[in-house]
Amino acid sequence: MVTLAHDPNLAPTEVANFLIVESRERGENLTNLKLQKLLFYADAWSLALHKKELFPEKFQAWVHGPVLVSQYHRFKDFKWRPITSDIAAPDMPAKLIKHLNEIVDVYGSETAVSLELMTHREKPWIEARGETSPSEPSTAQISKATTRAFYGDMH
Prior knowledge:
Elements: H1 12-25, H2 32-50, E1 60-62, E2 65-67, H3 69-75, H4 94-107, H5 112-120, H6 123-129, H7 144-154
Antiparallel strand pairs: 1-2
Helix pairs in contact: 1-4, 2-4, 2-5, 2-7
């Protein structure tokens, strides 16, 4: 197993930038919705496989699935349209690039809606939502401990 060294200076922006650039290189301009799900699965599988979060910011259990608020606001003006900002690939450690490429390999071929539906069937989002109806807004945080355990059990 490859161990990811958690860089305390790694920002969600760098991970988002990598996912956007890598997806473009593979022929897809991500929407904010799909970016959010890829960010979630990148962090979830880092927690499960390497016992390390990619960044300390927590996801919120929004109506359309897990959302990293900092990155949502960064791209919210695109609404449902593809993100077309001029973004450069960040300089990242090779082990992290390998991990993120695996996330794009596994989840990148899914549609944004398909990824949303997947997260809606998984414990981290369900637990964070609690008794909140599926269509009701929520800012409840998704537990990284629950995420680590849930995806760790799938491994």
